[in-house]
Amino acid sequence: MLTGIPLLLAIIAAIVLIIVLSARLGVHPLLSLLSATLFLGLAAGMPLSGLITAINEGFGGLMGYIGLIVVFGSIIGYILEKSGAAHRLAIALLSSVGKGRPALTMSAIGAITSIPVFCDSGFIILSGLNDAVARQSGVKKGVLALSLSAGLYTTHTLVPPTPGPIAAAGNLGAADYLGTIMLLGLLVALPTMLVAVFLAKRLGQRLELPELVAEAPETGTLPSLGRSVLPILLPILLIAAGSVLKLLGYDGPGTSLLLFLSHPLIALMLGTVAALWLMPKWDSAHLSGWIGEGIKLAGPILIITGAGGAFGGVLKATPVADLVEGSLGSGGYAGAGVLVVAFLIAAFLKTAQGSSTNALVITSSLLAPVVLQLGMENPVELSLLVLSIGGGAMTVSHANDSYFWVVTQFSGMEMREAYRSFTLITAAQGATVLVGVLVLYWVLG
């Protein structure tokens, strides 16, 4: 099997192949991803039987976690839209913050939501608001979709108790400094979110995204605010409660039940049950029809997302981790240079295999054996190292990232449009995080 520079070149070629087939030649994303997956496995010299196993495990492993979550989230979003609940939430949202700041508001809601919730689930839950807020505010849906996606993405890799930063902290010996990581993460997240909103307002203006509902319903026919918000708020609160419980290490009465209810699958299932309360009638047209339409919307997303998982599975079956560890083992880095190197490793892994969480975990695992030799010892330095890896883990989101497909499919964004807007914004977000981390290092160091 290939190692060293030849393996690196093969991975780069596979990424280029995805982009060329999808964005340039217009090949369906499923075929683009599978073609690049097979190319990478064959070019790397994987055994044919091992290649098939890696593809199946990558596809099935991702579907095993995100599959039903996408289905339930899609059903919730469809019911919110059809019942008018999304419109009710938009009215309440805009009356609270004013019509002049809908993009910033959507991004802030996303950033708060993504602290306890995976950004994929968060976008699925909240994406139904985009149409309604666009109608109420007059702001283009593309601006709102990009703002929401960027807000969710910002805290996903920076602020515990999101799993990725927690895992990175544990690997690097910074588990006792989660409070410091959260505080510094929020400081870095704020300018990162503002940069993303600034770009979303400009890049989103040229996006023409379809609406799920062409006309706004009459205000008098809308469901109450409490019923409208419950399908969104319930799963968010449950998932957040479970994350806090794990963070505090609580193991008292009721822990097992709360951890069960806080699993994203169960939380979104309960959110779906709450969404049934929004149906005007409990008959076959709604219980079967609306739910069936929600399931149909989830189908293409699941297939494409699974193909991205297959690509990641093949990459993980190559010696890419050994390549990175070998290049760092002989050290020679210090201070801000360590933060830059950590960022670049995470960015490479993120771009290559798609998962931000995997990039956080793999990069921190590679650095763990040499972190002391690299000069990272005190709580602030270790916290900034976690954040630097987190910044790299958001650079960039493209065709092999499940979140890329969740954003494009749930907003109606074409792939070419997504590369010119969403992917560019994630690159800017990552660069902003790196700058913020370096500034904090020089100020606090």
UniProtKB/TrEMBL annotation:
Can you provide one Gene Ontology molecular function annotated for this UniProt record? gluconate transmembrane transporter activity
Q: Which GO terms describe its cellular component?
A: plasma membrane
Regions crossing the membrane: 7-27, 33-55, 62-80, 103-130, 179-200, 229-250, 256-278, 290-311, 331-349, 421-444
Protein name as catalogued: Gluconate transporter
- What keywords are assigned to this protein? Membrane, Transmembrane, Transmembrane helix
Which Pfam families is this protein grouped with? GntP_permease (PF02447)
